[in-house]
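Listing S7. Sequence submitted for prediction.
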Amino acid sequence: MKNDPAEFFQRRITVSNETVSALFLYAEFVAQAAHEISKAFQGGKKILLCGNGGSAAEAQHIAAEYVSSLDHRFKRRSLPALALTTDTSFLTATGNDFGFDLIFERQIESFGESGDVLIAISTSGNSQNVIRGVKKAREKGMKVVGLTGRQGGKMNGMCDILFKVPSDETMRIQESHLFIEHTICELVEINLFGENSA
């Protein structure tokens, strides 16, 4: 059978594993990102997250991990994280009245503070609303952790820490972004609360 589903699935697993394995070169960046986020929380600051489409879902997912917990068996206090992708009234009003490119910039202008961290997610690195959000975060003295695909796009040189997943496939990039983000969150929990004993 030319397109055997089982073989197709196995090939996808192989490609996904190869992409994730290539992330070894970012081990130090993961440690740096976890340090910056931990420092922000210890200083009474917060993290903001933004992205479009699947990356918007990722932003919400990761914000929930910080506010709730990565592992429900690990009892700890809530950590302040806000996905800038969830307020439909704001998003539609601003998109309609001022343009979609401003949806993250406007929220960062309102909620961002010096010492906060922005997690900016764009598989291409070229999403205009994310780029404008990054610029506003830098203006406000925030640290910026970026996640993109292989090329990095316009986000090259704009972030304090930039993870460029070595792939050109959106699906593989998003899978690796989630792996990176979960690992950072786990390290932040360890930094702040000690090893998970669950």
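Caption to Listing S7: primary sequence and predicted structure tokens for the chain studied. Residues 25 and 163 are 10 Å apart (CA to CA). The radius of gyration is 17 Å.
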